[in-house]
């Protein structure tokens, strides 16, 4: 049993020279245990025969002329309900632009409009068609509609041009669909995330804090939500718009963070601590402002509670994920924290303002460490990094619960 077993896949084929590769895609989907139905656009009929696809899919091929394909007046709705996954491969420039603009002028495009799950497309076109400003603008729209674009690759084309536009190979397409399908593992999963800095007041006008912007934590909340989890966020003071459908509470000090986490965490399956919580807090808060005429002031600090360690020790059933910003020896320091704090996973990054990564930046470069392995994620937007991390969490979390279940037998 694998992730695609028994999935209903609707394969849309459009009028590209790469359409012949669709036969390989159907065979591979069948090998994965999928039920496959093929829909061909009129143009695609010039490039591959219905007979081949019918034989491989073991299903009647549907064409744009619905009256030939199905008896139902609501074929577009029936098929949209039947499918678990829609894959359009190859996807022409014409079809990408249609999809990006929400057109429904044929069976395939209308099904896509009525479909509520994930659509994957594997574009195939000449490099100039790919680089065309309208096509590029459609890519932004497709991304915004959460349509997953696989490829295209760089290389030489049938027309002799060289550049981006070659369809990803069928093996890679299936691999990507499997990768993306795994993330539904988080549906029904409850995740508590902390984000941002804390502030430790010294006197009524001053506090000790750090450079954390909260961007990584909020990106993690968006990613976990988009992967089906039910998410709650506890954040320090940040200047970020709240995440839709994610209940967010705001705290200021490390003690308030401790109280907020400990009063909520028992209701969650996964706890992700991205917040940069002050390690030390002032012993004596001065109720009046420290005066400027003092040359030196001595403020004594004491160690605060390690919230993540407290959670991992008290709630062994909760999957705990830490974040560590290090200035040096990333691997050594991060792995040490993984063990010392009894975590399931830790995400390490080098904190360096000159690199423009990490604190305050929209970008980061991280390495994930777990008890089963390591994964490096190259420099990217925090929103993309968050998707990768949550994907990794989903995999590790499902492995952990499988082990717990088999131990209980
Ligand atoms: C020989 C030939 C090869 C073509 N290859 C492609 C291609 O690879 N990608 C593409 O976007 N359009 C390609 N086209 C143009 C499309 O077939 C055309 O835009 C068509 O209207 C697409 O219709 P559809 O998107 O409904 O399938 C090709 C046309 C011809 C004649």
Describe the structure.
The protein has 409 residues and is α/β, with parallel strands linked by helices. The protein folds into two domains: 8-184, Flavin prenyltransferase-like (Rossmann fold, 3-Layer(aba) Sandwich), CATH 3.40.50.1950; 187-283 and 299-408, 3-Layer(aba) Sandwich (Rossmann fold). The protein has 14 helices and 20 strands. It has helices spanning 22-31, 50-57, 66-69, 75-82, 93-100, 107-114, 127-131, 133-144, 170-182, 215-226, 254-264, 307-314, 330-340, 382-408; strands at 8-13, 35-40, 62-63, 85-91, 119-123, 148-149, 153-156, 162-166, 190-195, 200-203, 206-208, 230-235, 247-250, 270-273, 280-282, 301-303, 319-326, 345-350, 363-370, 373-381. The strands form five sheets. The protein has an eight-stranded mixed β-sheet, with helices on both faces. Strand 10 (200-203) and strand 11 (206-208) form a beta hairpin. The structure holds flavin mononucleotide. Flavin mononucleotide is lined by residues 14-18, 41, 43-44, 92-95, 124-125, 129.
Descriptive tags:
single chain; 409 residues; alpha/beta; Rossmann fold; eight-stranded mixed sheet; binds flavin mononucleotide
Question: What does this entry show, briefly?
Answer:
The protein is α/β, with parallel strands linked by helices and 409 residues long.
Annotate the secondary structure layout.
Layout: E1 8-13, H1 22-31, E2 35-40, H2 50-57, E3 62-63, H3 66-69, H4 75-82, E4 85-91, H5 93-100, H6 107-114, E5 119-123, H7 127-131, H8 133-144, E6 148-149, E7 153-156, E8 162-166, H9 170-182, E9 190-195, E10 200-203, E11 206-208, H10 215-226, E12 230-235, E13 247-250, H11 254-264, E14 270-273, E15 280-282, E16 301-303, H12 307-314, E17 319-326, H13 330-340, E18 345-350, E19 363-370, E20 373-381, H14 382-408
Parallel strand pairs: 1-2, 1-4, 2-3, 4-5, 5-6, 9-12, 9-14, 12-13, 14-17, 17-18
Antiparallel strand pairs: 7-8, 10-11, 15-16, 18-19, 19-20
Helix pairs in contact: 1-2, 1-9, 4-6, 5-8, 10-14
Bound molecules: flavin mononucleotide (FMN).
Flavin mononucleotide binds at residues 14-18, 41, 43-44, 92-95, 124-125, 129.
